[in-house]
């Protein structure tokens, strides 16, 4: 999601990493798995949000499960920690 990347890095818009996390989360919850690769490392390595290894692991596990069962219900809701 290009807008989230722009917010995260401050590209042609005021930098707002928390807005980027919010946008990536919304997109992931709608079933787009590609954004997990953006959001997972942010929680894993404390890039602009508090470290939340459980949330990072949850994202990665969901990505793995979704990838293995393509075509099944890929809805996802973040349930641990806070943004």
In short:
With 83 residues, the protein is mostly helical. It has one domain (2-68). It has helices spanning 2-9, 17-29, 36-45, 53-68.
Beta-strand residue percentage:
under 5%
Task: Specify the biggest β-sheet.
Answer: none
> pLDDT under 50 segments (min length 5)?
69-75
Order of helices and strands: HHHH
Question: Could you estimate the helical fraction of the residues in percent?
Answer: 55-70%
- The helix-and-strand class reads mainly alpha
The count of strands amounts to 0
Global Rg: 12 Å
Q: How do the helices and strands line up, and which of them pair or pack?
A:
Layout: H1 2-9, H2 17-29, H3 36-45, H4 53-68
Helix pairs in contact: 1-2, 2-3, 3-4
Overview of this structure, please?
This protein has 83 residues and is mostly helical. The protein has one domain. It is built from 4 helices and no strands. The protein is globular, with a radius of gyration of 12 Å.
């Amino acid at each position: 999601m290009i807008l989230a990347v722009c917010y995260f890095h401050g590209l042609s818009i005021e930098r707002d990493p928390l807005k980027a996390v919010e946008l990536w989360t919304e997109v992931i919850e709608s079933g787009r798995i590609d954004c997990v690769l953006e959001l997972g490392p942010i929680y894993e390595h404390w890039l602009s949000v508090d470290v939340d290894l459980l949330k990072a692991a949850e994202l990665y596990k969901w990505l793995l499960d979704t990838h293995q069962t393509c075509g099944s219900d890929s809805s996802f809701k973040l349930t641990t920690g806070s943004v």
